[in-house]
Amino acid sequence: MNTSPALVKPFLRGHFHQGAFYFALGACTMLIAGCKTSLEFVAMIIYSIGLVTLFGVSSLYHRINWKENSRLWMKRMDHAAIFIMIAATGTPVGLLALKDNGQNFLIVIWVAAFLGVIQSLFWVKAPKWLSAVLYVAMGWLASPYISEIKAAVGFPVLLLILTGGLVYTLGAVIYAVKKPNPWPKIFGYHEIFHILTIVAAALHFIAIVMLQKTGVF
Fold this sequence. Notes:
This protein has helices at residues 15-33, 38-63, 68-97, 102-122, 128-139, 146-153, 155-177, 189-214.
């Protein structure tokens, strides 16, 4: 089955996440190399796998014109990778920075990721707005722990974490409403969503690097 006209992609679809994949691969390698304890190593491995998987699967899904059955499976993997990445990003904070409620936070966020993966696998054609709501809701599961996170990591790092969350949220809104869609054949709403994902991931990566360098962990 050939790609139908309805599935023709903008020229830049997937290019940004492909570049982010290679950058994340190198950046995460350096992050892991800087680990000082076995617990920190585990946290950074989980975070790195989640981040690299997100960009890797996304670039594969969006760059290639898959046949219909393969496209649906790649869409499942792409959406599932988002939930895994969200939980993986929260893992260093929950495992290493939160002392009183870290275990509770990790249980909540990884159970949410598991449910999100199940939804991605078995309801691949869920409305975009529903997927966006689920991503945002999961991303803000850390809200009840903000005071403890601030006490553990300091305001500058907390600000990076919150700003990254806001950028992710903005991207999810654009993904859901499909606007703005400036140049549909070259650079559309989905490309804006991808760029905002990269910006938010970069902010969170900087926050984790700052934590590692200051020895908060």
